[in-house]
Amino acid sequence: MATLPCEDCATGHLHHGHPRGRVETLHGLPTYITEPSSGAPPKGLVVMIPDAFGWETPNSRLLCDTYAERAGVLVYLPEFQAGHHLPMSLMKDIGTMTSGGDSLLKKIPSTLRVVYNMAPYLYLTRPSVTTPSIRSFFTSLRSSSSSVSNLPVFAVGFCWGGLYAITLTHSTSITPEGKPLVDAAFAAHPSNLTLPSDIEKVERPLSVCQGTQDFVLDMKGVKQIQQVLERKNQAGGGDGTAKGRHEIQVVEGAKHGFAVRGNPENEVEMAQAQRAEDQAVAWFERWIAESGEGEGAKAS
Hints:
Elements: E1 22-26, E2 29-34, E3 45-49, H1 58-71, E4 74-78, H2 90-98, H3 104-124, H4 127-143, E5 153-158, H5 160-167, E6 184-188, H6 197-200, E7 206-213, H7 219-235, E8 246-255, H8 258-261, H9 267-291
Parallel strand pairs: 3-4, 3-5, 5-6, 6-7, 7-8
Antiparallel strand pairs: 1-2, 2-4
Helix pairs in contact: 1-9, 2-3
């Protein structure tokens, strides 16, 4: 059941910059699309499932651009929340509401806006509503006759989207023809996990990046994930693939949202975000190499 997230779920900082991608409708959803600026054929396809603030934040789009440049991949950021994401202004309201320096009178308007926005968001983006849309997009992508469907496909999820990136690695996440919806996945500070079952079901390669100061997924939960993934690594893949295909990296001192909503003026937070970015890029590169680098393709 969805519960009211901790303050870290909706706090953070907007990042400044100009996303260079374009928006088109792909597989029935408005989608931000970005490719390597060099014009080289992409080596893989990354589909980002964003945090609670949705697909239009500069933070997510700029990170998509970075993935495209660093890993040489095509990146899609679809509108999986049907417009029901939290407004970006809520980051400031949450900060005011939880600040120790502001008066109670000043906190009242921010608190009311948070409650007003959070309740419908939790209801309208619950898994029973959003899972069909996400699975449909990946199924259509994988079943497409275009050359894109032959690229290695990666799911990347943050916070709200982290759960879906993880469940896309389950053995049940396949097309009607039996093809896995993703080749591998990366999740940073995922929320709403059911432990240990969501991790026990992981089959495709999974990389998780998690902070030690995350009250959505505390260290007890992190230990559970570590134990399950280590057991899977020792046993090897159920489909006969090599051992060691799952990982979780823990970033000391990092809070929920650190991979996408860190303060650009805080060197420590930017270093934490860089850790997550580097981990994701290395994960793409590893599994692109494992797949033999599929043929380059255009967005479709």
